[in-house]
Predict the 3D structure of the following.
Amino acid sequence: MAAYRELHQRFDRHYLLRSSADLLEWDAQAMMPEGSGDLRAAQLGTLRLLAHEAIAAPDMAACLAAADASPPEDPWERANLVAMRRAWVHAAAVPADLVEARTRATSSCELAWRTARREDDFASLLPQLEEVVNLTRQVGQAKASVMGLSVYDALADEYEPGVREAMLTPLFARLERELPPIVDAIVEAQARAPKAPVLTGPFAVDRQATLGRHLAGRMGFDFTRGRLDVSEHPFCGGAAEDVRMTTRYDEADFLTSVLGVVHETGHALYEMGLPRAWARQPVGQVPGMGLHESQSLLMEMQAARTPEFLGYLAGVASVHLGLGPDALSREALARHALRVERSLIRVDADEATYPLHIIVRFTLERALISGDLAVKDLPTAFRDAMERVVGRRPGTDREGCLQDVHWPTGAFGYFPSYTIGAIAAAQLFAAAVEADPAIPSELARGEFTSLRGYAHEHVHQHAARWDTNGILERATGRGLDVDALLRHLRRRYLEDASGS
Amino acid sequence: MAAYRELHQRFDRHYLLRSSADLLEWDAQAMMPEGSGDLRAAQLGTLRLLAHEAIAAPDMAACLAAADASPPEDPWERANLVAMRRAWVHAAAVPADLVEARTRATSSCELAWRTARREDDFASLLPQLEEVVNLTRQVGQAKASVMGLSVYDALADEYEPGVREAMLTPLFARLERELPPIVDAIVEAQARAPKAPVLTGPFAVDRQATLGRHLAGRMGFDFTRGRLDVSEHPFCGGAAEDVRMTTRYDEADFLTSVLGVVHETGHALYEMGLPRAWARQPVGQVPGMGLHESQSLLMEMQAARTPEFLGYLAGVASVHLGLGPDALSREALARHALRVERSLIRVDADEATYPLHIIVRFTLERALISGDLAVKDLPTAFRDAMERVVGRRPGTDREGCLQDVHWPTGAFGYFPSYTIGAIAAAQLFAAAVEADPAIPSELARGEFTSLRGYAHEHVHQHAARWDTNGILERATGRGLDVDALLRHLRRRYLEDASGS
């Protein structure tokens, strides 16, 4: 047990440094004055490096081997040892100089990307993006040789432990085949449906903020262990013991900020529901970004877009926005919240077309990493793929391959998480309602107790004791099941007219 | 130069860790939800320990010796080497287990102090305070033997490099002798003076905040490199490149929050005026807490309480608080801002009686550290000293020895900084006005350009290139000069009636 104890201490230090860096990143997005970026970058560089060193020391292999040789009895500790090894492999497989070169390259590429996107100028980004792809491929190769995986799988494993290309390829192939006719049918049905009234603002920002805090509170967000602030790009950061989520406000459109808060609160409830005793160890973290996304989508897409909750939201939003008690109708909210259309920008896409955007990226990022697609050919390949898969051809790179921050920051293998999350959310919501048919009527009263209880019992409290598939199997009887998402879309948009 | 370069890198890392911890401490005071204290304490413990280790490694002595053997040519680098050695002595002189024991003891004693003060229960604090005094004495002994100083001087040197008990004792003896008759004369004069109107609120908090930001901006606070927020105990934290200052608001009393902002802005201007090129090295920091305090008092006590600035403040406060253009008079503000009385609480004391409160603490903390005063006898000794020196006897320990956080947190040797700052502020303001007689008329317009320019030229830009006395000598022709403070008090309160 001495070896395990030693590892426990090192991962504790790793966590404290990482969570300190996460708090500094939250501050950079939500609080930091604009002129302090140089200092912050240097602070983060130091903290991230020390966090890395805490679990990548040369004697870690021996320490892990010793712990494996006399493993702990407790099942959580055993699972923690597995999670420790995985974290160590990702940290130690890559030579330090390659880590550093890639960190430098992605930092400078992200800056270049901001300008390139604003000015729709892919050429200015090309050399730096080539460097990032090249270095990320080398990172993937280093990990692949240690982990016995393909390069893409080794990269994706950082975000989605245990999920493999061989599993994703048929899943996405099926979505690529079956989603377009569903989308066509929805678009056609919505064109025929009677038009509900348009939401016209302005909606005062401070009233939107009050509404957002009200909803987060109803959902169970614990304001004694977290905050809600404003940032340009909403996110849920901080740490499980101190969750910092953000949103942004637009006077013309309160629904986006409100559903954004619901989304981030879904992430936050997951973090807040992780077992306190394991908060600072690898087994106490979420098992993958897909399952994290499933918890935000469970709330934002599954629960908050039910006719029941939209009815509650119409009432409470009317009051909090100072519009008078019946100014908003469920139908008006549904018209905006459930609108389906083939569009160009992923982050604005509806839940029916969203997986098509992911397919474009999943296809192209594998080709970039394998070298089958040269970075210089990305703009055209992106437009072609969008036209083929989503059914819309971007006229600019700003609306094409420059729209996402992921590749410039080296996050290859992340995109599938969004669709894994959407599928898992559909599975979990169906299973929750089956287990407790009162959930929809609770949502009609703005009550989340039963749904949150289900999520906590079947997902949150298990942290990374099992991987995503293991958790889904235990919760729903099946691993990742694309049918659940297709069924959900058909039911909500084609069979049950009440919500559209 | 290789040794110097190596040291430069280590102190860079030390600074980045320390400033990260400082940001987390600001967050804990101004932003953090109440339930996240455990995580924050653990994060801070890790960051402070790593910062310590970065400059306390076993080979530091050899590294410093090598750098001394072939010192850099540049005068800033040479001064930096001196400052590095000083920082190293303070970091490395104390055995690691003693550092750790004291950190644990002060953390738990601070918590106990919060309760003890609230409940006026010194007995509950006694065992923990005894432990802190005992461990702090051991720390002082360890430093004293390395530094060739007395125990008290070794402790005080951490806050006030180069300032010694032998210099402070006659200084405080003189203040103890000469201040009481001045205070008596002021109190008598103020009792005879015609009464200006009382300030009656409520003053809306958001309007006070706007007024505070207006004044900070007029003073030259750079909001692209800093923020102003709210915390229970106002302070100026963060880092020179990212200054985080706070204030607190009271609807019944805007003057305290406004003058608090002026005070913290004085600290902030010092930080923001330090040379950017040296921001992360020891020579680029302030040379001592007394000089830091001099910059806040230069603004809050010297500049902002002149009749000229109070006239400006009356006008601008009337407007920003929405009271109508002439609702406040200079006389009304002066009545509150210049009120002198013998009182019990140090932090609320006026500038004339404040040094008497410090004398009480300077006397008692030396006796505690030497062992001449047993901790159990502190309550009575504190009441006796207050009665003798300040002229008021506290009826409770809450208004007596429990009022300050310093001793429970082990900060012995800090208190003199407040009076060093007050003296230096009086010297610097007199020298500034002598150098530029237009300063008062600028203050009458809310202009700080010339005063800030003087402070920057004579104090800020030199950072820790010289010690406090060295900076004062170069600026004013004299080292710390108690006459300047006495002269200032006589002039403001006894000779020049216009401000009272």
